[in-house]
Amino acid sequence: MRTRKTFGVLPRLLLIAGAATALTIGPATAGLAHNQVIGTSPEADSIVTVQPKELSVTTNDALIDLEASAMIVEGPDGLFYNDGCAVVDGNSVTGTAELGASGKYTVTYLFTSIDGHATEGTFNFTWDPAEGEPIANGLKTQPVCGVSGSSVDNQEIHEATDAPVQGESVWVTVLWIAVAVAAVGGTVLLVIVKAKRSPLPPTE
Question: Which residues belong to the signal peptide in this entry (predicted)?
Answer without folding.
Answer: 1-30
